[in-house]
Each structure stands twice: as structure tokens, then as C-alpha cells.
Amino acid sequence: MSFNKTAILTLSLVISLPSLAQEDSGEVMELDSIKVQHKEESATEVTLDKLLKVPGSGNDPLQAIASLPGVTFAGGDTAAPAVRGSSPADNRYLIDFMPVGYIFHLDSSSILNDNSLKDFMLDSAAFSAQYHDATGAVIAANTRSPYLAQPQTVIDLSLLKASVFVERQIDEKQAFYLSARQSLFQYYIENFLDDEEFKLTTVPEYYDYQGKYQYTISDQESISVNIIGAQDKAGILFDEDSDEVKQDPGLSGGAKFSSYFDSQGIVWEKYDDEGGSRVSSFSRLSQVFDFSVGSNIDLDIVTTDYSLRNQWSSIINPQHELLWGFDYTLKNIAFDGVFKGPPCDEFRVDCRLVDGTETITAKDTLNINNYDVNLADNWAVTHFWTLTPGIAIAHDDYTQQTFIEPKIQSRYEFADDWAFTSAYGDYHKLPDDFGSYTKEFGNRDLKQTEATHYELGIENQFDESWFWRIETYYKAMSELVVSRPSYDNYPSLTPEQYEELPRYTNDGDGEAWGLEFFANKTLSDKWYGWLSVAYSETKRKNNLTGENFKYNYDQPWIVNLVSSYQINPVWQLGVKWRYQSGQLITPLLSANQNADNPELYDPVYGELNSERLPASHSLDIRADRTFHYASWDMDLYVEVLNVYNHRNVTGYSYSEADYSEKEKEVGLPMMPSFGIKAKF
Fold first, then answer.
1. Among 220, 271, 333, 663, whose Cα sits 20 to 30 Å from the Cα of 547?
2. 400: alpha, beta or left, given left = phi > 0 and alpha = psi -120 to 50?
3. Cβ atoms of residues 469 and 459 within 8 Å
4. Burial group, residue 628, by CB count within 10 angstroms (0-12, 13-18, 19+)
5. What is the mean pLDDT of the chain?
6. What is the pTM (predicted TM-score) of this model?
């Protein structure tokens, strides 16, 4: 069930109001993954400490992945990253080997406390056989083990959030940590609002928590219990004379939403003397989504997943490392709600609640069993060539589909410090917007979306401190879910016949390709940094309408330049400059008076995503100062965002019932920020 865009976008806008204004008119970055971890630094990686201090990240390493190649935070109705031309909904997220509801809050900050984060991996495409249920990217984060002999309390405070982190030892084999975080902008956000057309009914806010208990059986074996959860919520009420209500009366009464998840799991890890390993987990994930818009939409969705994951690694001989595993997930979905509005998706812009012709009421419970097995051979063909063929087999009893998907990765070192990389893989995903798959709200016969990934790259370790890589990729996507086009596309059908058509079908295709350059310099001569340049194109095709168009997340050029200078042991200065092509928009050409309601005007749009906003760019700077005291330490950072105050255009809004007045929406001006972290 794709919800009304206007309502969702409005709520998302409110979340980000402090930053918006209006004016008139592994060890290495291999092929497809970036591993970020604490250890002796290699020139091929971007370490966690580096990402922690990227200007504009607010001490959030996961949020800083936007400075890596091919990544952009989508904005709009989602805070998740779009990677290499795929939708944010195509990604999969794992924490400590277990699935989670979401990783990013509505303001794009992550749900993980940086004090617990050990490493994370961004697999942009063509990922290995052990990862499934994703056609875009995989983001897998790992938290560290609790310290056995280093109790600490960490308090972190900034303009946007506050957190506390507590870590304690129980005995020589047991330790734990707990963290909790709360947003702060809800206490002053209304000071930034100067609009008589709406008021907040639920002040935007979020919180998250996590904890980990670990029992160390031996140096090679441990059991951990993990908990994590988060909530985001907001509500808005439009004035009855507001432009929003005049343009779409279905928004009368306002909108509100709440998204919440909690997860608990047990993870067993064991390693042997030969280099093999086994990781097993059993977890429960509960998600609750409440969403309402006036009297047109009132939806309550609760999903509960029980997951069993196992992954083994065995050293067969010096040339072969066998990797295999299996996953089982039981998904329970309970939904209860009313929906009055047209079917909507990212393939269409003309989607107002007032255009809905039917009211759908449903209450049901579904159970879905998913089975996945994987096998791969990490094969050292020669001293210079590593080949990893693999296969994944998956089945679910809801769509009754079985997938047999080959994967292969290759790395060939053809000269000293030079290597060719390549990869291929087939993938599938059951979309998280599960309402589209139900008989009441969508189409019970929908199939899973599919994708095929190709990659080819070359990399060079220039010297001990410099590494660079060029990579090209191509993604072909099929069975994409598209909504039923408007009635105007079916002139031969009666209204009754039109409403009998499926609301959603698998009639979408897509493709994405790109070329990326990445150069990284490790800390030497007191400075480090990296440069990423990405060029890409991504397109979609609606086979029901014959439309071919550039996709929402098509941004041909993305450039990131990040650098930091270690002035002395306690002072560090960093800069980040980012440039990206403008967001695609669908132009509003005119508005016609509605034949049945003279007070309502129907917007007339041009071709989908046929115009592009001006390119955006900004410079952020950051200074870090470390203080050491007898029994505690303090880190202080000051950031200035958008130093040269460039007003990046983020979109257009239209006033009056007839859409006659057009205004620019622009991003945040120059804005200072600060944060303090005290460790006891």
C-alpha cells in the first residue's frame, strides 16, 4: 500500500524544518564493499575513526557514508541511503548478524551509538551469496565486545541529540553495555516555525536504545545477547484554509505517523585453530507502523519476524575456504486499517487522496515462511588470482517462488600493487511495503522484485599511504511493482471495470550504470583524506503506460572531498566539500478547474522527472579538541555547515488552490553546531 505522497513528504519536511527555509521564486575495500573497522590502518580503507569526524556527520559514522562513492541520502519520504541507482527500499540492514527494522532515523542519523560500533560494511552491489533479500545494497554493522576490564560511562550531547552509554564488567568472563539516546530538536523546533497554515500535533522526535551482554567461553568462543530498538514519530494539522487542504481536501484533519521496532537476539560465535568459524543467531524482530491522514487513511501494521541464521567457514586446504549457511525466517504480519485514495508509487506524481474512488477496509493476519541456503568457495586459483563462485537458493511460501541465484567474485593481481576485480550476481527481494501484496490493498499475485548486478574494477596501492580505485557497474532490475495508472489511460473501460483492475502489478523494469573513482590517503605528514567522484545514470520503465524516464534518484555527478589535519595531539581540523547534480522533478505545467467541484483544481504535470533542479554544493568544516583530566576525558567539536552559505534548491512548492504561486524550497543556510562527549 503506497501512501499519499503529499502527507508523507509534509511530515518529512517538518522533521527537517531546522535545516530548511523558503525564498521566493573487511580489511580492504574490495570491489563492492567498504569495510570500516578499528585496527592498524591500511590505505585501502576508510576507518571508523575517520568517518566519526567527517564534518557534518555529528559524530555519526554511519551517517558519514554519504561521503563514500555512489551513496546519497534520498530525502523526501525516506531517510535511508540510495546506493548506485537503487531505491532505498531495495537495501537490507543487519546488526550483529541479525536483521533490524531500520538503521536511520528521519533526520538521517543512525540508530547505533558510536561507542559500541566496531565496524560496518557497505556492499554496494554484487554482494556475496550469504546476503539475500536485497536488490540494492547491504549495510551490515557489527558492535564490539564489551570490555572486561575497562568500565566506563560516556555522555554525548549536541544540539540535535543526547545519549548516555554505560559499560561494566560482571566477572572475568562476563560484561555488558547499555546505551540510550533521545532527540532534542523537539524542544525547540517550534521556534523555527512561522507558518499559520499548520501546527504540530505531535512534535517530531525519536529515541533509540541498544545493549549487549557477552559471556566469553574461551578465547575462541562466546555467546552474546543483543537488544536494540528505535522509534520515530511526528504529527501535523493543516488549517482548513491552507494551500495543502485547498489543493487536496483529503489532507483535512492533518497527518501523523509513528514507526517503532524492537529486536532481541542471541549470537553464538566459535573459531577454530585452522581459521574456520561458525556464527549462529536466533532473533525476534517486532515492528509497529501507525499512519493516518484525516479520515482517509488509518493504518496499523504490526510485523513480527523470528529468524534463525547460521554461517560456517571451513579451511579445506591452502587453496580452498568453503563458506556455507542457511537462514529461516517466519514473518507474521497483522494489519488493520482503512485506505481511501488511489494506488500510488514512485512511478507517478499525480497522486492525491481526493482522487481516490474507492474505500478499502481490511483486517487480517498473514504468516510467511522464508528459506535461504548459500554456498561459496573462496578459491586461491594461483598466488595472484582469487575466485569466489557461489550460489544461493531461496523459497518463500507466500509468492510460491524459488530462486536459484549464481554469484561470482574475482580478484587478479596482474602486477605489484595492481589488481583487476570483477563480480556478478542475481538477487531478489520481497518489498517491505507489504501492503501492496495483500489482496485487499494491492494484489495477492504480485511476485518478488529481481535484479542482476555486474561490476568491473581496477585498483592500485600507489605507495604505503595512497590507494586508488576505478570501478564500473551495471544493474538490471525487473518485476518492479507499479501502481494502476489513472482512469484516463483506460478510455475503453467503465469506472466499474477500471476498479476491478489490480491496484499493483509487476510491470516495471529498470537499469542503472555508473563509473566511480575513489582515492584514499592514510594519516601521514599529519593529514589524511579521500576523494570520491561518481558518474551514474538510472532509469525506469512503466510497461503499463510505456513511459521511459529517469529515476527519482538519478544524480549523474556526486563528488566528495574529505580531508583532516592533525594540528597537534589534542587539536584536529577537518573539511568536507560535496557537489551533486540536482534532484529530478516533474514540472507542473498548469491547473484546470475540476468539473465536479469548482473550488478544486487538478494539476497538469509534464513528463515524469523531466526537469532537474540546479546542482547543489556546500563546504563544511569541523574542529575537534581533546581534553585529558585525571579521571575522565572530554572531546569537544565545533562544526560550521555550508560555510559559504550556498542556498541549495531542494524543490518547489505551489501556493493557492490553483497552484498559481511558485516558491523555491532551499536547504539550510550557514549553520554552526557543536557537541560534547565526556568519558568517565
1. 663
2. left
3. yes
4. exposed
5. 86
6. 0.88
